[in-house]
Write a structure and sequence with these properties.
The chain is mostly beta strands. The protein has 2 helices and 28 strands. The chain has a 24-stranded parallel beta sheet that branches.
Length: 407
């Protein structure tokens, strides 16, 4: 009986340790210790009941090869029958340790075969703090970094295929750079439920909003396009904005969401594009400033399926639909740019630096940027950074593929 209890206790400790690391990765206020104790209780080992003690602890320093680790020890005095005549009551314990090799990707290219599935050319700079670059392509040059002064740095760099680094450019990882791994990472958003395409905000008429002198828009479904320009900031109120040509609405052309030499302020916003045509989300021009921060995790009153997602291009869009940041535009994107069937492009000196025209936000997604798309192209001296250690806004980073049972 004691041996059976020992095996059950070890299974509980294993699962609790893994759960603690997953909670650590999730961030956003998740409590690894409380999560571990909750999982142990599900296995019949509730802390404080029947003499059970469940002790979760962060392992410091982390074991070699792991960025973070948690251990869980479970102990419990065992019942006695005839053995009480000759033995004191024994206490059985089990310990397990689990670790993570990263906080998850800030850039994930999903294309399985293409060369240049991720490319950084023309002296562009990519800097990812506390998160990874993952490229699923098995191509011999699935990752291309070229051009004098060009650089790509990340906590870890995981390349399913090979890489080409030329022209004085650099590809460097703080912890680990691996090529030809033979490993791909799943789309962390593939199970999210897309926003509902509702009735058009303009009572069924095609919507084509052109704003060159500021203004305000409210959440809803817009069957057409949005174009913002001019020196006065335009504001999107918090919520989900659906742009579509579906259900017979609009003029039949694909929706376009564009900021061209204008300023957009959007805090707590998801822009969702659903189109059978060549839809575009385009921020362009050296006078363009875009401040787009996703709904924060746990935000009440918003569709939880869009939390952490700033831009979402639905899979129904053809491959030549696009998301682009071009021509010297400046943007702060807090959260994810998600276009699983399309290419996300930064070009022509685009950067994500400060924008003074928009109010200062307390949204925890500020400072986080994630790109998850079929392919990623960064060129022409562009700059892309992820500067926050708060990874709760880079979406479902707590992938089980990144958690291993060490002991």
């Amino acid at each position: 009986m004691w041996e059976v209890n020992k095996r059950s206790m070890q299974s509980a400790a294993d699962q609790a340790a893994v759960a603690a690391v997953v909670a650590y990765l999730a961030g956003g206020g998740s409590d690894p210790a409380a999560t571990a104790q909750g999982v142990a209780a599900n296995f019949g080992f509730a802390n404080g009941n029947n003499g059970v003690i469940v002790t979760p602890a962060s392992v410091s320093p982390s074991p070699t090869g792991y960025d973070a680790a948690y251990s869980v020890t479970i102990s419990q005095p065992q019942p006695q029958y005839f053995s009480a005549l000759i033995l004191s009551a024994p206490t059985i314990s089990a310990t397990a340790t689990a670790g993570t090799t990263s906080n998850g990707p800030c850039i994930l290219s999903l294309n399985p075969t293409a060369n240049s599935a991720f490319s950084d050319t023309g002296g562009s700079a990519v800097s990812l703090t506390d998160c990874d670059l993952d490229v699923n392509s098995n191509g011999t040059t699935g990752t291309v970094v070229s051009g004098g002064g060009g650089s790509v740095s990340a906590q870890n760099i995981n390349l399913n295929g090979g890489d080409s680094v030329t022209g004085g450019a650099t590809l460097a990882a703080t912890n680990r750079l691996t090529t030809n791994t033979g490993q791909t990472y799943p789309d962390p958003y593939q199970h999210r439920t897309a926003p509902t395409v509702g009735s058009c905000a303009t009572n069924g008429a095609g919507y084509n909003g052109n704003f060159n002198s500021g203004g305000t828009l409210y959440p809803g479904t817009y069957c057409g396009s949005l174009s913002i320009g001019g020196s006065t900031a335009f504001t999107l109120k918090p919520g989900v904005y659906v742009f579509t040509d579906q259900n017979g609405y609009g003029s039949g052309s694909a929706p376009q969401v564009k900021v061209n030499n204008g300023t957009l302020c959007a805090d707590g916003v998801t822009i969702y594009v659903k189109s059978a045509g060549n839809a575009q989300v385009q921020f362009s021009g050296n006078s363009t400033n875009v401040y787009l921060i996703a709904p924060a995790p746990g935000t009440s009153g918003l569709n939880g399926e869009t939390e952490g997602l700033a831009i979402w291009v639905d899979k129904v869009a053809p491959t030549n639909a696009s998301v682009s940041f071009t021509g010297g535009s400046t943007q702060i994107i807090g959260g994810a740019v998600y276009a699983p069937n399309n290419t996300v492009t930064f070009s022509g000196g685009s950067s994500n630096t400060s924008i003074t025209q928009c109010p200062v936000s307390t949204n925890p997604c500020v400072g986080t940027t994630q790109i998850l798309s079929d392919k990623v192209s960064i060129s022409g001296g562009s700059t892309l950074t992820h500067s926050s250690s708060n990874n709760s806004c880079v979406g479902d980073s707590a992938s089980s593929a990144r958690v291993k049972l060490i002991q």
